[in-house]
Amino acid sequence: MNTQIVSTERSIFFPKFSLSSTSENRIQENGVEVEGKVKTKLLSMWNNVKYGMKLKTNFSKESPVWLLGKCYRRIESPSSDITELGTDVAAIQSQTDILNPDDEGFEGFKKDFITKLWLTYRREFPILNGSNYSSDCGWGCMLRSGQMLIAQGLISHFLGRDWRWLPDVTKAPCIQSITHRKIIKWFGDKPSLNSPLSIHTLVTLGEAAGKKAGDWYGPGFVAHLFRQAFKLASNDNYEFDSISVYVAQDCSVYIRDVLDECTLKNDKWRSLILLIPVRLGAEKFNSIYAPCLTTLFSLKQCIGIIGGRPKHSLYFVGYQDDKLIHLDPHYCQEVVDVWAPDFPTTSFHCRSPRKLHISKMDPSCCIGFYCATKQDFFYLIETVQPLVVPPSRSGSGNEYPMFIFCDGHSKDAQVTPKRLPPQDLEYSIDSNDSDMETEAFEIL
Predict the structure, then answer these.
(1) Which ranges of 325-431 would DSSP assign to H, the alpha helix?
(2) Domains: count for the chain
């Protein structure tokens, strides 16, 4: 919901007194500040009530669960046909009850899901540049979803896909724990060169394209923001020299552009986060792409998809049957000072997986892949191309793929590549903001 947090009207908390103009202005400013904080808290409470209405998600014991390239099957239970997760939407209580190193099967899914970084609305962070916003509650969900997608790419890069976060560990921090905290700091909610992927950085970068705090950000627009943020981050953070972000153009990945971006001196490879904005339908999600979309979650290079319901962004990480498993950024939490020693990390992890029927998905989304090596990139090209072509309904074999790989540079493309989606399905970051000004309050 595109809600202005701080009003510019005279505060309702202060009556009119006979004061000097300076004193009166100070009272008005203080009143506006107090009123803004009250509005922020009320909006946060409302979002959290909406977010927490459904506290349990059901998982079938018969069907496998796919989570970013890994498959989990529930161990047979004689007492129940379903398992229920997510009784604590705040993800702040002890999680030792669901973390058992000796467990396998579906317990592995729980450990894997909890490991994903959960980046949500925050309140009472430093005011965003050029605005009165000290919270992104109600409008920043796509930015947060993008942060989670990028965070998964960074975790895969620096910690590996098999790394697992273990809460309630009391032993001295290891190198993996230190790296885990460092990644969280990069997304810290403050304007800092040491937090190059913060919401403050993203909003500032968006201003050059006419966006500002409080506006709706589409998935393709967010992808380009992160590409810019990575380039800037490498100026002050050496860790970003080893990884690059490439954003596909018009559903096309130009292979030579990627090789130029990622090939360093002596033929060394800079790891790749590949972001592909697509539109899978006109007004609604086209069901013909459903099997293509879910199959992507079986690829080891997949780091997720940002999209969601219309005007309600989510970060999709897997699926079971015809429902997508996701992390929801709409839970508003207090800002965490990630620069304090041993800052708490529990609020950055969620134990409440949610599901959304794939038919309810918004057609605009952005697909993410991580390729650690050049071989991974070529393997992705070879593997994914037949998977993104939907099954033919007419038998003609002329269905449009979700996206394509083109051999060459984008600057040399003289004509539109073959088999691109028709014009009415092309993704555009210049979407009509008037259709996205409000976020519908729907019970999850």
Answers:
(1) 374-384
(2) 2
pLDDT tens, position by position, 94-134: 333 333 333 467 889 999 999 999 999 999 999 998 889 99
276, 367 in Cβ contact below 8 A? yes
DSSP string, 90-147: T--S--TTT--TT--THHHHHHHHHHSB----EESPSPPTTS--SB-TTT-HHHHHHH
- Specify if 441 maps to a domain: no
In whole angstroms, give the CA distance from residue 224 to residue 232. 13
Q: Is the domain of 262 the same as that of 344? A: yes
The answer to the question of residue 140 being in a domain is yes
Quick check: helix, strand or coil at residue 256? helix
Say whether both 208 and 346 belong to one domain: yes
Tokens of 26: 């100070």
Bridge partner list, 244: 272
Is residue 442, in this structure, part of any structural domain at all? no
Residue partners of 419: CB distance under 8 A and separation at least 6: 400, 401, 404
- pLDDT digits 0-9 by tens, 251-280: 999 999 999 999 988 889 999 999 999 999
Q: 61 and 107 in one domain?
A: yes
Catalytic positions are 141, 328, 330
Closest Cα partner for 115 from 58, 167, 51?
167
- Residue 154: name the closest of 270, 268, 273, 67 by CA: 273
Per the structure, the complete domain to which residue 316 belongs is given by 55-435
> 380 burial class (0-12, 13-18, 19+ CB within 10 angstroms)?
buried
- Mean pLDDT for 202-229 is 94
Tell me how far apart the alpha carbons of residues 350 and 116 are, in angstroms, rounded to a whole number: 8
- Whether residue 440 is contained in a domain is answered as no
Q: What DSSP assignment string belongs to 198-223?
A: SHHHHHHHHHTTT--TTS---HHHHH
Residue-level pLDDT at 422: 39
58-67 pLDDT, tens per residue?
888 888 999 9
Task: Report the predicted TM-score, pTM, of the whole model to 2 decimal places.
Answer: 0.79
Sign of the alpha-carbon torsion through 151, 157, 162, 164: negative
Average pLDDT rounded to a whole number, residues 10-35: 42
pLDDT in the model for residue 171: 61
Are residue 209 and residue 257 in the same domain, yes or no?
yes
pLDDT score, position 285: 95
In this structure, the answer to whether residues 326 and 213 fall within a common structural domain is yes
